[in-house]
Amino acid sequence: MGTTQTDPTVTTVTAIVAVRIPDGAGFDLTTEAEQRLAAIEGVRAVSVDGLRGIQPGLSATIATVAVTIEATVTINELRERLAETVCIDSIDQLTPDSL
Predict the structure, then answer these.
(1) How far is the C-alpha of 71 from the C-alpha of 76, rounded, in Å?
(2) d(CA 12, CA 14)
(3) Of 18, 21, 40, 95, whose CA is between 20 and 30 Å from 86?
(4) 4: in domain
(5) Residue 56: exposure state from Cβ atoms within 10 A (0-12, 13-18, ≥19)
């Protein structure tokens, strides 16, 4: 998914991340993953492009999703914030969109 960049302070990236979704969460896995990613400081918008995998666990399911993220921070800062977020199990890919 390509996004036209009109604001020079916005970084658009595509990513594949594994997001931990607690059992009993209120929505489907992709919506839950989108909401958890959107709650990270510096993230302006998130769009889930596809569900790549599901790994059920005892108290949570890990949903691996392909996403497009618009952030108000650099790609390195975004990578750090994702890595520090408890619900992010892994970051398999994080690349800037080429326009």
Answers:
(1) 11
(2) 7
(3) 95
(4) no
(5) exposed
Asked if pLDDT for residue 13 goes beyond 50, the answer is yes
- Is 73 within 8 Å of 18 (Cβ atoms)? no
What is the pLDDT, as a whole number, of residue 98?
66
Neighbours of 35 (CB within 10 A): 16
Q: Report the C-alpha gap between 73 and 44 in whole angstroms.
A: 9
Structural domain boundaries, residue 87: 11-96
Instruction: State the pTM of this model.
Output: 0.85
**At 87, which CATH number?**
3.30.70
**In total, how many domains does the chain have?**
1
Residue 75 within a domain: yes
Q: Check: CB of residue 53 under 8 Å from CB of residue 63.
A: yes
* Whole-number pLDDT of residue 8: 62
Q: Please indicate, yes or no, if residue 5 is contained in any of the structural domains.
A: no
Amino acid identity of residue 24, one-letter, is G
